[in-house]
């Protein structure tokens, strides 16, 4: 590889939680690190619960975040309140940190539009998560253009997977971000798989970060299982964008420890040995091991925190389950201003069916 394409790669913690580079100055702020740990643990527990709710038919498909908690939590912890998040579907961790309620996330995956109408005014300008691959990268450039035109010192942060970086939308977004020097940060969650397609056959470039170079701005890799590394580099990228110094692409190297979604069975295409190896690197245990080494964490504190987070998840599940279901025909709303005849007929059919079911239930 030409030297120019050798990009920075940041890692502070080895998989066993031991420091493997000179730590950033803020790494002795244990209140901060414990806050990050709490959010990572909360995400992991929420994730387990969401999968269980899907398995028992109480929500629809869900995209687990397991293995990628450090990325979302570091993004959430470094963004300012008035920045705008333009997320994709594996962003539970960052959405919760921004102020999206866990019951809203359950509503979303339960097929209820109200899950994207965030109650907390702090997240009113964040986007709903995006399922069409990579389209959100362009939306983020639109947001960043608005910030630039208005002269605001705000940043648009957008996330996507490794597979998404092969999409035209992603490359077009990089191009416009570089051409217009937009205040945007692209975070690529490289979890090594795009459903059943492994990273090595998605793209011939040695790194995904180097795609930024073709667009004229900085790209770098970080260890996405090391929350300290992602936090550190996010801070730098956000500051650069805020000062009008242009975009950054951060490729976070992680691993999708779970299935692609609850509709997938990854054992059909992934070697068990690879997954076992990836568990050795995972982010939650890594930060926990670091905190234990620093003498600020122990089994007792862990147990108390697990209890606290489980109670928080349970409260969200109860709030979700206590929500009166939306009318079934809402699934067809917000697409057409004037309803096409065929869809209007389907709406009537749905209404009648729903009404009949109510009668059945009596
Ligand atoms: C435009 C579009 N094409 C195809 C799909 C189907 N699809 C859903 S997820 C996915 C793979 C995405 O992989 P990656 O970008 O690596 O993200 P990950 O799910 O691994 O986080 C595909 C092809 C889609 N949602 N949108
Ligand atoms: Mg992926």
UniProtKB/TrEMBL annotation:
Instruction: Write down the Gene3D superfamilies for this protein, in alphabetical order.
Output: 3.40.50.970
Among its keywords, does the record have Oxidoreductase? yes
* Taxonomic superkingdom: Bacteria
- Record has tRNA processing as a keyword: no
Q: Which biological process annotations from GO are given for this protein?
A: branched-chain amino acid catabolic process
A Gene Ontology molecular function term of the record:
pyruvate dehydrogenase (acetyl-transferring) activity
Q: Which reaction does it catalyse?
A: N(6)-[(R)-lipoyl]-L-lysyl-[protein] + pyruvate + H(+) = N(6)-[(R)-S(8)-acetyldihydrolipoyl]-L-lysyl-[protein] + CO2
Cofactor(s) recorded for this entry are: thiamine diphosphate
Q: Which UniProt keywords apply?
A: Oxidoreductase, Pyruvate, Thiamine pyrophosphate
User: Known EC number(s)?
Assistant: 1.2.4.1
Dehydrogenase E1 component domain residues are 37-324
Query: Assembly and interactions?
Result: Heterodimer of an alpha and a beta chain.
Q: What does this protein do?
A: The pyruvate dehydrogenase complex catalyzes the overall conversion of pyruvate to acetyl-CoA and CO(2). It contains multiple copies of three enzymatic components: pyruvate dehydrogenase (E1), dihydrolipoamide acetyltransferase (E2) and lipoamide dehydrogenase (E3).
Protein name, entry field: Pyruvate dehydrogenase E1 component subunit alpha
From what organism does this protein derive?
Answer: Ectopseudomonas mendocina (strain ymp)
Which classification does the entry list for the species? Bacteria, Pseudomonadati, Pseudomonadota, Gammaproteobacteria, Pseudomonadales
């Amino acid at each position: 590889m030409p030297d120019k394409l050798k990009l920075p790669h940041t890692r502070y913690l080895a998989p066993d939680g031991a420091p493997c580079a000179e730590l950033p100055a803020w790494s002795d702020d244990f209140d901060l690190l414990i806050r990050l740990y709490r959010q990572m643990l909360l995400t992991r527990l929420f994730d387990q619960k969401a999968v269980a709710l899907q398995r028992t038919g109480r929500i629809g498909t869900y995209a687990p975040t397991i293995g990628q908690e450090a990325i979302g939590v570091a993004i959430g912890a470094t963004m300012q309140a008035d920045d705008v998040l333009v997320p994709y579907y594996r962003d539970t961790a960052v959405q919760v940190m921004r102020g999206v309620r866990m019951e809203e996330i359950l509503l979303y995956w339960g097929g209820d539009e109200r899950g994207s109408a965030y109650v907390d005014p702090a997240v009113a300008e964040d986007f709903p998560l995006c399922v069409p691959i990579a389209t959100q990268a362009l939306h983020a450039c639109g947001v960043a253009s608005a910030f630039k035109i208005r002269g605001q010192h705000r940043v648009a942060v957008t996330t996507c997977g490794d597979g998404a970086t092969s999409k035209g939308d992603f490359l077009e977004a990089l191009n416009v971000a570089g051409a217009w020097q937009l205040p945007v940060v692209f975070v690529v969650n490289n979890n090594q798989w795009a459903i059943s397609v492994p990273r090595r056959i998605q793209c011939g470039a040695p790194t995904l970060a180097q795609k930024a170079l073709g667009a004229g701005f900085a790209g770098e890799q970080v260890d996405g299982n090391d929350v300290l590394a992602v936090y550190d580099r996010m801070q730098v990228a956000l500051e650069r964008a805020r000062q009008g110094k242009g975009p950054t692409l951060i490729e976070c190297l992680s691993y999708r420890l779970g299935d692609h979604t609850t509709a997938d069975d990854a054992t059909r295409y992934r070697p068990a040995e690879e997954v076992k190896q990836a568990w050795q690197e995972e982010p939650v245990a890594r930060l926990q091991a670091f905190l234990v080494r620093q003498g600020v964490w122990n089994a007792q504190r862990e147990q108390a925190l697990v209890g606290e987070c489980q109670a928080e998840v349970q409260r969200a599940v109860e709030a979700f389950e206590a929500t009166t279901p939306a009318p079934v025909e809402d699934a067809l709303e917000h697409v057409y201003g004037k309803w096409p005849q065929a869809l209007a007929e389907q709406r009537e059919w749905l209404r009648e069916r729903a009404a009949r079911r109510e009668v059945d239930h009596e």
